Amino acid sequence: MRLRRLDLTRYGCFTDFPLDFGEGDPAEPDLHVIYGPNESGKSTLLAAWLDLLFGIEPRTAFAFRHDYRSMRIGARLRIAGRDHELARIKRDKGSLLGPGDESVDEAVLSAALGSIDRASYTTMFSLDDDTLQSGGESILQSRGDLGRMLFSATSGLSDLSQRLNEIKQEVDTFHRPHGRTTTGLKQLKDRLAELAHRQGELDTNARRYAELVQSAAAARAAHDAAKAERDRVRTRHGQVRR
After folding, report:
1. Cα–Cα distances in angstroms (integers) from residue 117 to residues 44, 94, 113, 155, in the given order
2. Fewer CB within 10 A of the end CB, N or C, for the chain?
3. Which CATH architecture has domain 2-125?
């Protein structure tokens, strides 16, 4: 996906402001640098691009000149060799529009982005001054693998090493192939073997079950006959005594 033009129609401090990146030449470098003094709108441009891709956030900070109902961002995108004219407005559903302001399926963008979400895209492709500064501080404070720390800094994942160590410890607690300590997986396997043994003691096959049911029925019939005979004898005993 290539951004050919970004239109800040009504967004933040901008009104009807297009930013054209041209056709692009496959034989030439396709890198554009946008520069300007502080508070000139560079961060607003980045936020507008993210809002175009993923939708204008519910509590956006860029509605100070144009209210929610009038906010609008447009773009000309080249996706898989085909140009698309798209616009984004502030709406809960159906906020992505086509050239005639008809609703467009979000799959047009999500497919081109590989179904990546806003947070992941921001982490990987939207570095800002705060992210670079925190990443640099992480490198200076690191005592571990420099390559890992450089990756952490450039991707914005300044706590990557710490999180990886926590996950490794959690995995070791659950299962350590060559360890002698009892892990969570070992406990579960022992419990499973215990239950399997208990099941073997209690289980019986269908033929044996049928035999037991038949024996139980015969025993019940014999019990009922013996009970009836007992009642008859008791009655006769009473008659004899009288």
Report:
1. 20, 18, 9, 15
2. C
3. 3-Layer(aba) Sandwich (3.40)
